[in-house]
Write a structure and sequence with these properties.
It is built from six helices and five strands, in the order E-E-H-E-E-E-H-H-H-H-H. By secondary structure, it is an alpha+beta fold. The protein folds into two domains: 12-87, Ubiquitin-like (UB roll) (Roll); 96-177, DNA polymerase, domain 1 (Orthogonal Bundle), CATH 1.10.150. The chain is elongated, with a radius of gyration of 18 Å.
């Protein structure tokens, strides 16, 4: 049995599974999950946005559910599974959502994209064939200032079709035909 490292004085220490990897991290106890991910673990894909829980830019998956990491105290995440945008790809293979966001131009400046991707991933895991209205509802807590949302909705629809394997060609033709 491996012995635990001593935590530095004045620091909190928790164990997490981050993007599939068991991780122990020591940090100032007042830090949010967003701050620990970015500052202590170097996972900068999760973005600082409003830091008030209103924009969705900092969304991560906590035990598979979308969570605003700017509002989650890191101490409360001990023993949890955290997935960030860095954990979506498998090696050099992008997640279908990442592919369709790129294919359809759903990511303009890209700042809000990690939050959208993770919320959409959670949606597709719960509902593999969502309607446009279900996609809009799921993504309603995420704000984008660049795209106007249409390409984002289309990218989620196309990823769902690709992940289902059925009618993907027809869906791609419909979406690419609208360009």
């Amino acid at each position: 049995m491996a012995s635990r490292r001593r935590k530095p004085a004045g620091k909190a220490q928790i164990s997490l599974v981050v993007n599939g990897e068991p991780t122990e991290v020591a940090f100032s106890p007042h830090k949010t999950l967003l701050e620990v991910l970015r500052e202590d673990l170097g996972l900068t894909g999760t973005k600082h946005g409003c830091e008030l829980g209103e924009c969705g830019t900092c969304t991560v998956l906590l035990d598979g559910q979308p969570v605003l990491s700017c509002l989650a105290l890191a101490l409360a995440c001990d023993g949890k599974r955290v997935e960030t945008v860095e954990g979506m790809a498998r090696g050099a293979v992008l997640h279908p959502l990442q592919e369709t966001f790129a294919d359809l131009g759903a990511a303009q400046c890209g700042y809000c994209t990690p939050g959208f991707l993770l919320v959409a991933k959670a949606l597709l895991e719960e509902n593999p064939s969502p309607t446009r209205d279900q996609i809009k509802q799921a993504l309603a807590g995420n704000l984008c200032r660049c795209t106007g949302y249409l390409k984002i909705y289309e990218a989620v629809e196309l990823a769902a079709a690709r992940m289902q394997g059925e009618e993907a060609e027809a869906k791609e033709e419909t979406l690419y035909g609208r360009r």
